[in-house]
Amino acid sequence: MGRLGGMSGRRMGVDPAFGDPMSVDVVIPYYRDQRMLDRIVAALARQTGLARPPRVIVADDGSPTPPTVPPEVTVVRQDDRGFRASAARHLGASAGDGEVILFLDGDTVPAPGYVAALLAALDQSPDLLVVGRRRYGRFAAADVSEPIEVLPDPAWPASFYAGTDDLTRDDGGWNAGLWRGVLSAVCGLHRRLYDLAGGFDPRIVGYGGEDWDLAWRCEQVGGRLRYVPGAVAWHDGPDWSGRGEDDPGHVAQKNAETARLARLIVSPLTRPSGGIFGVPLVAVHVHAGERGSGADAAACASLVCWGDVSVTADPASSDAAEIAELFGADPRVRLAARPRWWEPASQGAGPRRRPEVLIDLLRPCALGALDPGRLRALCPPVGMLTLDDDEGRVLARIRTSRALAREHLWGDRPGEPVVIHAADLGVTRFSADDAGVRLERILGGW
C-alpha cells in the first residue's frame, strides 16, 4: 500500500454518502480590515457542496484592535513586528487540527464552490498541494461574495498554467520551477504534507515569496502541485503587479523579495550563477579513495567549478591533509562525514531545505567536467542514477532530494538504477594506482 499514513481508504469527497469527510481548517491572515474579513467569513458560511463546514481560523498579524468574529471562528494573534504574513499563516495552521489546511488572504473572497472544488482535487491525494484561481474585481460596500466590477486578470498565470499542464508537467531539470505557480492567497494541502515541508516559514519578514518557498519545500519532500481553475476566489482590487510597476517603492519591494528567495529556494531561477549559499544546489560526499595519493583531492578540485556546491570528503581519505590545505579558505569544501541531507525527513522540525541533487562519489573522477544542470535532468524521478567506468565499477551514485523523499515518505518503489557510462558524458576517472595522482598536473591543466 505504501506509506500514505493509512489515508488511501479515506475520502476527501464532499458527498456524505462516501463516509465521514475529512476535517478542514481555513486560515486567514488578517491586519486592520474588518469589513473585508466580515465579507470573507460570510462567504465561507455560504459555501456549497460541503458535507460539513470548515473551521475558520483568523491569524491576526498584530492589528491595533483585534478583529471581531462570530463565536464559531477562532482568532489567534501575534505581535506587530513588521509584515509577517508568513508567520501569521503558520500560527493559524498550528492552531488547527484539520486534516486539510486551506489558506485565503485577508483581501480574497471565495466564490460559493471554492472550498468544495479544492477538496475534490485533494481527494485521496495526501501528497498534493493545490492552488485555486484568483480573479480580480471591486466590491461594493454591501456584504456580497462577488465583485460589482470585474478587473482584468494578469497574463502570466494563465500562460504559466497552460505551459505546465496546470502544474503537473515538469521537464525534469531546473528550469520548470512549478512552485512559481503557487499563490498563498488561494492554496491548500493536507496537513501531513504541510508538516513534512515544515510549513510557512515564520522567520520571513516582508511582502512576498513565502508561498513559493513553501511550494518548493513541498516538492522537495515529494509533494505534487496542481492548479484547480474551478476553485475561484476574488481579490479586492487589481493584481499586485498592476499596482504601480514603475513605482520605485514597488520595485524596491520586489527586489527585496528576490534577494530573500535566493537564500531560501535552492534553484538557478532564484540565485546568481556561482553564488555560495548555506544550502547548495548540489551536495557531494567524496568517499575515501582506494589507493595512492592525490585522487580524492583532484576530485574535490574538479567539483568546485560548479560554484553552488558543497563538498564533504571522508576524513579517512589519504588526501585529508592536502584537501585541508587546498581548501582551507573555501567554505564549499571540508573534511566531514556525509551530511544529514541524505537522511529521510521527519515531521515537526520546522522549514527544511536540502540541495536539489545528492551525489555519493565512490571513486575519484573528474565529475566537474559535466554540467550540473544536465546531471540533474538525467536523474530519474524515483530511484537513482549511477555513473560506471569501462569495467562496470560504480564511480558515483546520484539522486535528487525529491526522489529520496518519494521513496521514504510516500512509498514509491525505485527500480534498478539508471546506468550511464561515465565516458559517454566526458567524465574520466582519476587513476588510483600506487604512484598516485600528480595534483600539479590536474591544477595546472598539463
Walk me through this protein's architecture.
- The protein is an alpha/beta fold.
- It has two domains: 249 residues, Spore Coat Polysaccharide Biosynthesis Protein SpsA, Chain A (Alpha-Beta Complex), CATH 3.90.550.10; 163 residues, no CATH class.
- The strands form two sheets. Strands 1, 2, 3, 4, 5, 6, 7, 8 and 9 form a nine-stranded mixed sheet that branches.
- Helix 9 links the parallel strand 11 and strand 12.
- The longest helix is centred in the middle third of the chain and has 17 residues.
- The protein is elongated, with a radius of gyration of 25 Å.
- The N and C termini lie far apart (56 Å).
- The N terminus is likely disordered.
Quick rundown:
InterPro entries: Glyco_trans_2-like, Nucleotide-diphossugar_trans. This protein has helices spanning 34-45, 85-95, 114-122, 155-163, 191-197, 210-220, 248-264, 295-303, 320-326, 372-378, 401-410, 439-444, and strands at residues 24-30, 55-60, 74-77, 100-104, 108-110, 128-138, 149-151, 186-190, 224-236, 282-286, 309-313, 333-335, 357-361, 385-388, 394-400, 418-421.
